[in-house]
Write a structure and sequence with these properties.
Elements lengths: L4 H32 L7 H29 L8 H25 L7 H31 L2
């Protein structure tokens, strides 16, 4: 298998994380309005689009990275903390995607779902930040040697 294939996962995950950060940036006016009473406009369609792209890429990257490691490096545990932290982010990504899809399909005022959606996605983005550091160790150990 060509060596560039192993770089798809880290690049894909970095792009997905950047998209998620942009979706969070777009969500900030909504947070200000819902929780601090500020008059703002919320770019719902843009937020939904970039959030959906981020979730899909994150999941594709997670599944692809796991499959590559299992096939070429002898099992998922080969990457240590990077693998286990990925297991923590997976439910956050899934929950963020599901709650976002529900709110996008049925637009109506809600009290708790936007909060759950936001918490799951901020947690996913925070964990993704840790994954960048654990991923750099994996890149050094497996791709640069």
């Amino acid at each position: 298998m060509p060596g560039f294939v192993f770089w798809i996962h880290p690049v894909l995950q970095l792009v997905a994380t950047a998209m998620a950060a942009y979706a969070l940036y777009l969500a900030w006016p909504r947070v200000l309005r819902n929780h601090f009473g500020k008059r703002t406009s919320f770019a719902w369609a843009e937020h939904g689009k970039w959030g959906k792209y981020a979730h899909i890429l994150w999941m594709l990257g997670l599944v692809g990275g796991t499959a590559l490691v299992a096939r070429h490096w002898g099992g998922s545990g080969a990457t240590g903390d990077h693998y286990w932290i990925a297991q923590m982010i997976m439910p956050c990504i899934a929950g963020g995607y599901i709650t976002g899809t529900i709110m996008d399909r049925d637009k109506k005022p809600r009290k708790y779902m936007p909060l759950v959606h936001g918490v799951l996605n901020v947690l996913a983005l925070t964990i993704a930040g840790f994954q960048i550091f654990t991923g750099m160790s994996v890149v050094r150990e497996f791709l640069l040697h």
